[in-house]
Amino acid sequence: MPATKANAPVAKPDQQEIDSQKHDIPKGSTQVNSKPNSKKSSAIPSKRKAKTNNVPAKAPRRSARSAAAQIQPDPVRLINHLLSPNSLDSCRPKDEIEDIKSRGRSDLRTYSSSTFSPFEELMCAVILSRPISHGLGLRSIRTLLNEPYQFTTPKRIREAGFEPVRKALDEACTQHRQKTAEELVLLADAVVDHLGDGDEDVRLERVRRECDHDWEKEKEMLKKYVKGLGKTGLDIFGRRIQAPWPESYPFADQRTLSGLQKLGLPDNAEELQKLLENHWTELNVEGFEGNEDERKRRVFVQVLERAVGVDLEGNADAVRAEAAPRTKND
């Protein structure tokens, strides 16, 4: 049965605007006259030359956004900005910024700024493997790892069981709650049975031992025993785990390389590593823990994380502008 006019789908506002632009008559073009032309008018060419003035044409205005897109600061200056707290809000979802302010807690554990154990990183990789937005994924992580739930070990998840995990995800107002809760409970079981050394183990050194510290073998083992962990999840875990698991270093997944490219940084893991090595003494790395090699890996990971966060939040141009040297007019 043909759809009535009342039931016809309504075009999205942005599409309507595009369509209307396509059908706008450009300035200076000749409109068709519906009245019949006289003999005199038929002898005149249809296109009349517009009156010309000697006034020079005005240069097109450049928006602040287009100007920011052309700013490219020195790479070392940009990296130092990414390593500083000043770049944090540019890579956080807005609701995370509001959550931190509303709770009045600077120690709130967030995916954007906290150091997680390998078990917690694996939890996060499972959550972020689901087809949900960046903001929903980070809100789920925030809810699960902070009070009142604090599902930070396999033991806490196993003792709580499915319903409290599902309740935490309900509170986060995320999607795929049933499936995600099931997978997190199964993850806790997998750590006890196959990946760890007991229900309080969060380091997952058993994986590394049994795989002879071979990253490719480790990925296969994780994929075998962790339900819901595919290529995307393994890429996320591999990107974040490089400080305690040096066998995975240097690694950057395609999503992160895209973010690096938009910032004007090397879109290759090895090239980024060399850039950091060559300018190590110029970088602000005082707050990073561990020996020098571990600190270098932590810095590498933070640059990756800030780059992908900035990209996901659409703030690459703004971050480049923030990192650029200030001029006299600023």
Helix fraction, binned, reads 40-55%
Shape: globular
Instruction: State the end-to-end distance.
Output: 63 Å
Low-confidence segments, ≥5 residues, pLDDT <50?
Answer: 1-44
Per DSSP, the total helix count is 18
Largest sheet, strands/sense/barrel = none
Q: Could you report the average pLDDT, rounded to the nearest whole number?
A: 85
Report the sheet-strand fraction: under 5%
Q: Radius of gyration over alpha carbons?
A: 28 Å
* Overall SS class: mainly alpha
In total, how many beta strands?
A: 0
How are helices and strands ordered from N to C?
HHHHHHHHHHHHHHHHHH
Brief synopsis:
With 330 residues, the chain is mostly helical. It has 18 helices and no strands.
Description:
The protein contains 18 helices and no strands. The protein has helices spanning 13-23, 39-42, 64-69, 75-83, 88-91, 94-103, 118-129, 134-145, 154-160, 162-171, 177-195, 205-210, 215-225, 231-240, 254-263, 269-278, 292-312, 316-323. The protein is globular. The chain is mainly alpha-helical. Helix 4 packs across helix 18 (316-323), helix 10 packs across helix 11 and helix 15 crosses helix 17 (292-312).
